[in-house]
Amino acid sequence: MVKAAHKQVKKPKIHSSTLETLTLAEKIKRNALKAKLAGKTSGVSEAPSITEETSEIEVSLDKKSFTTFLELTLIPELLETIQALKYTKPTPIQAEAIPHALAGKDIIGLAVTGSGKTAAFAIPVLQSLWNDQTPFYCLVISPTRELAYQIKETFDALGSVMGLRTCCIVGGMSPMDQALDLLRKPHIIVATPGRIIDHLAK
Questions:
Q1: Alpha carbon distance 107, 64 (integer Å)
Q2: What total number of domains does the chain contain?
Q3: How high is the mean pLDDT in each 10-residue block of the chain (202 residues)?
Q4: Domain membership flag for residue 9
Q5: What CATH number has the domain bearing residue 140?
Q6: Residue ranges making up the domain that contains 81
Q7: Which residues, at least 6 apart from 88, have a Cβ–Cβ distance to it below 8 Å?
Q8: Within a domain: residue 76?
Q9: What is the structure's pLDDT at 41?
Q10: In the chain, count of helices (H) and strands (E)?
Q11: Does the residue 49 lie in any domain?
């Protein structure tokens, strides 16, 4: 007598990177909110309601905050390079992200390739850097070497009249040359995870 084999019915996997990213973003927001509330309500037995949590993290994604870069209170040096690079109107990710970043808020942004994501965070970083004028101001982590070079190029272009110093710390390049670049105290460091960890360890 042959026993029937038990077949496991597997649920179809959702191969949507957008869905996975949004789910991760929601988890990060929930964890950050829990940590924030835990600090505020230490010793208080009553737990906050779900309605309060939702209202704190809810952000409108349909309405653009500005239509031209001239509407923002950016420094003249930054506006000059924006115009020279022919950035006329902000892309949707830029319109949503830049005002919040200029206000010092944390942002999780999601947009397709070629939508201007790098400028969406580079412009607020450079605006803030102009006010603080300190080295090692920003570390950008890139998943690939090619993307790291592209990000550095965007920073170099936007900060071309600001005296901006940048360096790219990626694999496949001389660690000694990169160490010398770091000794020059760049404002912006663009790096891949493995190589920057190597430099930190040494």
A1: 16
A2: 1
A3: 48 47 66 71 44 41 70 93 93 94 93 94 97 94 97 97 96 96 97 96 90
A4: no
A5: 3.40.50.300
A6: 66-201
A7: 68
A8: yes
A9: 53
A10: 8, 3
A11: no
